[in-house]
Structures are given as structure tokens and as C-alpha cells.
Specification:
mainly alpha
Length: 65
């Protein structure tokens, strides 16, 4: 299997759209949306390009941590 990186242009585009701060409170620069919104965005991104689907969940922290 070939290791294929996600182009930085795609990552920057997702950042510009706010994907990496969906559930971060607005007072900290995020969008302040809930987990359902994060799941919908993840599902839609995965449907288009499976490699980028989970990028929006990287800022999430498990309650156990």
C-alpha cells in the first residue's frame, strides 16, 4: 500500500471553512457546534474523499483523557 499524504491545499481549505474547530466553543475561536454537526461534516467529507473524513475529529478529546 502506498503512503499518500493529503495535500496541504486541502488541509488549508478545511481550516478556512472551520472544520478543525467545529465543536470548540466560540469564545476560543471555534464554531461552537455539537457532536452531531461534527459527525455530519465527517460523514460528508468521507463521502467525497475518504482520507479527509476524520480530519475534523482530530481536535476532539476523549472524556477519559
Amino acid at each position: 500500500m502506498k503512503n499518500v499524504y493529503i495535500p496541504l491545499e486541502i488541509i488549508q481549505g478545511l481550516a478556512d471553512l472551520g472544520v478543525f474547530g467545529l465543536t470548540i466553543p466560540e469564545e476560543f475561536g471555534g464554531m461552537g457546534l455539537g457532536k452531531v454537526a461534527m459527525c455530519v461534516v465527517t460523514e460528508e467529507l468521507s463521502a467525497r474523499l475518504y482520507r479527509v473524513g476524520s480530519l475534523g475529529t482530530r481536535s476532539e478529546k476523549s472524556p477519559a483523557n
